[in-house]
Amino acid sequence: MTLNVESTLGERTPPQPAPVSASDGAAPPLRLIDDTGHAVPAAESGGFPLPPLATLLRLYRQMVVARRFEAQVTALTRQGRLATYPSALGQEACEIAAVAALRPEDWLFPTYRDSIALLTRGVPPQQILASFRGDWHSGYDQQAHRCAPQTTPLATQALHAVGLATAAKLKRDSTVALTLLGDGATSEGDAHEAFNFAAVWQAPVVFLVQNNQFAISVPLDKQMHCRTIADKAIGYGMPGYYVDGNDVAAMFAVLTAAVERARSGGGPTLVEGLTYRIEAHTNSDDPSRYRAAADVDVWRGRDPIERLKKYLVGQEALPDAERADITREAEALAAATRECMTRQATPDPLELFDHLYSPTSPRPALAEQRAFLAAELAAAANDASVTP
């Protein structure tokens, strides 16, 4: 079900059912395909159409490939090839739908958990994983991919997204910014500032909150008393949608409408995708200390990939040849990821001083520090070469 928040733009608001008041009981999230892989009745779709089969097949392929990447990276982390890795296993529908809703000129603002969103956006695996191995902080070209750095501080990227979107509005270009957040991030002051700033300035930005129900170990009901995160949108004066985050069809439909609404001048939208983090927070976390294995099993049964697979098979849109091709693509990516992570990185410590300021505006203090470090490195290299 949709949580409709009236906007001042009336006709430009995407199709929505009647408003839901905070006094109502917990409403089910909007979905287009149910857990059994069947399309929901039109009366329950919130006015959003089911995406075409060709689109759903593309989304299915991207989710399968992304999950294989996640499994491979998790294995590499356990082998000690990476320092840490936060898996998004089970959250593929939210991330893949978010990327699919964007145009090439739009910007994505991810968090540390959104590696598969970057992968789907076209960032190579070795560049995504550079920061997790300690080679670089953000190993990819943000301008080339229109992807901001993956942020570890919670909610800071939301303000960055609003700033970029506001600049785009002032320049009168059609760029939209979409930022990913977790449920824990919405407890941060930065998130409030971003929501308020975006609404006041009617910035072309979409906030996607992946509500995986835990801020590391803190459950959602210990973070807030409101019925849903999407309910908060009414306080800022923007539309809010409460969506089944394991239904990629619903996520894609709602996010596409929100992105195009922003592009047309309709302002920001808050979308909450109800999902679940199947794996640990990171490889250093023990989730058994704060959640029951039985709960995890329930959510494994709501797998977003299996749900869409059932629907596509029922529509005779997923032949064996297509499945085999998807498997080949996923395995090729896994092999390429393994190969790039076996190559030892050789970062140059002097890169610490690069890209801090324009080369035409050098800072004397930094130049002095760089020269000091260069001398120490040269001395160390010389000592190593003469040591018997």
Automatic annotation (TrEMBL):
One GO biological-process annotation of the entry reads: branched-chain amino acid catabolic process
UniProt keyword list: Oxidoreductase, Thiamine pyrophosphate
- The EC code for this enzyme is 1.2.4.4
List, for all copies, the residue spans of the domain called Dehydrogenase E1 component: 61-334
- Segments for region (Disordered): 1-33
Q: What class of enzyme is it?
A: oxidoreductase
Give the protein's cofactors.
thiamine diphosphate
One Gene Ontology term of the molecular function aspect: magnesium ion binding
In the UniProt record, does the keyword Phosphoprotein occur? Answer: no
UniProt key word Oxidoreductase: yes
Q: Which transformation does this protein catalyse, written as a reaction?
A: N(6)-[(R)-lipoyl]-L-lysyl-[protein] + 3-methyl-2-oxobutanoate + H(+) = N(6)-[(R)-S(8)-2-methylpropanoyldihydrolipoyl]-L-lysyl-[protein] + CO2
Function field: The branched-chain alpha-keto dehydrogenase complex catalyzes the overall conversion of alpha-keto acids to acyl-CoA and CO(2). It contains multiple copies of three enzymatic components: branched-chain alpha-keto acid decarboxylase (E1), lipoamide acyltransferase (E2) and lipoamide dehydrogenase (E3).
Record family assignment: Belongs to the BCKDHA family.
**Any idea what this protein is called?**
2-oxoisovalerate dehydrogenase subunit alpha
Instruction: Give the species.
Output: Cryobacterium melibiosiphilum
